[in-house]
Specification:
The chain is of the alpha+beta class. 36% of the residues lie in helices and 20% in strands. It has two domains: 7-106, Zincin-like (2-Layer Sandwich), CATH 3.30.2010; 127-184.
Length: 185
């Protein structure tokens, strides 16, 4: 039917509705519409992201489609409340008192921190970084890999560069490591 809104349009409409409610309550503040990306994967239903002065929403399309009504009525106001709270109270905790107040008094929704959606069909690909010490390849998580890079002071480095790292191989006791690349598991 031509009158039916697509699921993305329903999300946009709900966000706009929530922002209008927030505009009424927090009169001097204006909450402009921010970009919406439908690229979130894994078990997280939605995110409000802030990078410097720019804001955007990330939506998990799989969970949105599978839980359409509840997602639009509960998860969207949840994320908009994060946006509103970050503008009004920039130093508040993510699910703190201010956020709860926005959820309950402005959007008239329960201030639930987590969703209860079935996440068995959502997929999250795991990245593994391969480092070689001389005796074998070591699979290192992205978090550990990034910590190594921060300790070394590198922002990026090419494959096959020999680096002395502040870690010792438990097998060969080497401190010279070679980055072999990234694999998806």
């Amino acid at each position: 039917m031509a009158n039916e809104l697509t699921i993305e349009n329903q999300v946009e409409e709900k966000i706009l509705e929530c922002l209008c409610e927030a505009d009424k309550v927090f009169k001097p503040h204006i909450f402009p519409i921010i970009p919406i990306h439908f690229n979130l994967t894994g078990r997280v239903a939605g995110q409000h992201c802030r990078r410097g002065n720019s804001h955007f929403f990330r939506i998990n399309r799989v969970l949105l489609i599978e839980n359409e009504k509840d997602y639009i009525e509960q998860t969207i106001p949840h994320e908009v409340a994060h946006y509103v709270t970050s503008v009004i109270y920039p130093f508040s905790k993510p699910h703190g008192r201010e956020w709860k107040t926005v959820m309950e008094r402005v959007f008239s929704r329960p201030s639930n921190r987590c969703h209860k959606y079935d996440v068995s069909r959502t997929r999250r690909r795991k990245h593994v970084h391969i480092w070689n010490c001389g005796c074998m390849d070591h699979k290192i998580s992205t978090i550990r890999h990034n910590r190594i890079r921060m300790r070394m002071g590198f922002t990026d480095f090419p494959t096959n560069r020999q680096i002395e790292l502040p870690m010792i191989c438990t097998v060969c006791k080497s401190i010279t490591w070679q980055y072999k690349g990234l694999r998806l598991v």
